[in-house]
Design goal:
The chain has 128 residues and is of the alpha/beta class. The chain has a 4-stranded parallel sheet, with helices on one face. It has 4 helices and 4 strands, in the order H-H-E-H-E-H-E-E. The termini are far apart. Strand 2, helix 4 and strand 3 form a beta-alpha-beta unit. The longest helix has 19 residues. Helices cover 47% and strands 16% of the residues.
Length: 128
C-alpha cells in the first residue's frame, strides 16, 4: 500500500522541514522540480514543446524551477503565468527573475504545447 499525503499534512511537512530542520524553501522547490523533470526526461523527447502553467504562489515557483531546469537541458519551454503579480510569493518572484535572466519565454496567454505542466495551485490553496 502506498500512502499519499493530504494537503494539510504536506503543509505540516513543509513547515517542519523549513522551520525545524532549517531547509530553505528554495531548496525544497528545487528538489520538487528535479523530481518532475526526471519524469519528463524519462517520458518526453527533447523535440516536444513544454508549457508550464504557473500560479504566483510557491507551487508556481516550483513550476518556474521546472521550466528553468528543462530549458537548461535543451527543451523548448514556455512559462504561462496566471495570477496577479502583486500577490506573488517571494519565492515565485525569485524563480521568475532567474528564468528572465536565462531568457526563458514567459507569456500572459496560453500557447500550443505538447506537454503541459500544471503548477497553478499547491497545498496552500484555501478556497473552493
Amino acid at each position: 500500500m502506498e500512502y499519499i499525503v493530504s494537503g494539510s499534512d504536506m503543509k505540516k511537512v513543509d513547515e517542519y522541514a523549513i522551520k525545524r530542520l532549517g531547509i530553505p524553501s528554495m531548496v525544497l522547490m528545487e528538489r520538487a522540480a528535479l523530481s518532475v523533470v526526471d519524469l519528463i526526461l524519462c517520458n518526453e523527447p527533447k523535440d516536444k514543446k513544454i508549457l508550464v502553467v504557473s500560479g504566483v504562489g510557491n507551487n508556481g515557483a516550483d513550476g518556474v524551477a521546472i521550466a528553468r531546469i528543462l530549458s537548461l537541458k535543451g527543451y523548448d519551454v514556455t512559462i504561462y503565468v496566471c495570477g496577479v503579480k502583486s500577490s506573488a510569493s517571494e519565492e515565485f518572484l525569485a524563480q521568475l527573475d532567474i528564468a528572465k535572466k536565462l531568457n526563458i519565454k514567459i507569456v500572459r496567454e496560453m500557447v500550443k504545447a505538447d506537454v503541459i505542466v500544471d503548477a497553478i495551485f499547491g497545498v496552500g490553496v484555501s478556497r473552493n
